[in-house]
Amino acid sequence: QMHYQPIIDLSTSEVVGFEALMRWKHPERGWVPPDVFIPLAEQSTLILELGAFAMHESVTTACTWEPQGDQTKAPYVTVNLSAHQFQDPDLVPMIERELQQSGLDPERLLLEVTETVALLDITETMNVMEHLNRLKIGIALDDFGTGYSSLSYLAALNPRIIKIDQSFVRPKHDLDRSNTLLEAIVTLGNKLDMIVLAEGIETPEQLGHLHNLHCDLGQGFLWSPAVPSGEALSMLGESKHPTAD
Ligand code: G
Ligand code: G
Ligand code: MN
Predict the structure, then answer these.
(1) What are φ and ψ of residue 226, in 5° steps?
(2) Residues 77-101: tens digit of each pLDDT
(3) For residue 38, which of 82, 104, 89 has the smallest C-alpha distance?
(4) What is residue 217's three-state secondary structure?
(5) Which residues touch 11 (CB under 8 Å, ≥6 apart)?
């Protein structure tokens, strides 16, 4: 199943998108988390089938979402891609087919890739990026700050969103230094005209701090974990999300 975690605009506290996250309900073991089954699926072509399933479910579900407040566009959906998917020659055609069948506005789809995946084969990545740009599909750079954070490649990849890893948002040690890094990453993203999203926000204090740093978007248990599509849809009707003020 695909579940959806809301992405919140820290200034308006509106839901601007959802990250699609896969869950496997095993008949005996119950819910198996993706960090257990995705790496296994990656050892075979099963990951391509799961990836196609995730894309189909996500774009179909996103078609049911309506614009919020003064928004001109309905919330977008971000779909995680694994390394093998990114290297699959059928990736772009598969996405094009799904967009065509569903009728989803391509600007409402973003692909989440980690820097590590994007840098595996930079020539191939730039080739895929060119196709995605032409289709107006955006990239959200996942787990930013935990890979090599190659700054020249960051500029070349030009993601629409950079997602700051949770380890900077909820530092376990070296609080001062983590905060300095957090501030530097937000500034870097802002200056490069990228939308900066902080992951794993759990407390109003973390929210207030990130808002003060001019971080654009947030995601985390403070608002909601990933929920089934029906719950995501009803979340859109509500406007009582925690705000930074
Ligand atoms: O929500 P969380 O525990 O559920 O997700 C754990 C990890 O699994 C995340 O790093 C996320 O990128 C990955 N993941 C979740 N859903 C998908 C998916 O549909 N495809 C891929 N490739 N990875 C996913
Ligand atoms: O690696 P990726 O960023 O795609 O995966 C996000 C992971 O983080 C998922 O497992 C998701 O369930 C988890 N997550 C999302 N929000 C929070 C949060 O506020 N706190 C914690 N501890 N985990 C979170
Ligand atoms: Mn992700």
Answers:
(1) -70, 135
(2) 999 999 889 889 999 999 999 999 9
(3) 82
(4) strand
(5) 211, 216, 244
What's the CA-to-centroid distance between 213 and ligand 3, angstroms? Answer: 22
CA-closest residue to ligand 2 atom 18:
200
d(CA 225, CA 200): 10
pTM (2 d.p.): 0.95
Crossing angle of helices 175-191 and 204-212, rounded to 10° = 50
pLDDT tens profile 3-39 = 999 999 999 999 999 999 999 999 999 999 999 999 9
User: How many angstroms is it from 213 CA to the middle of ligand 1?
Assistant: 28
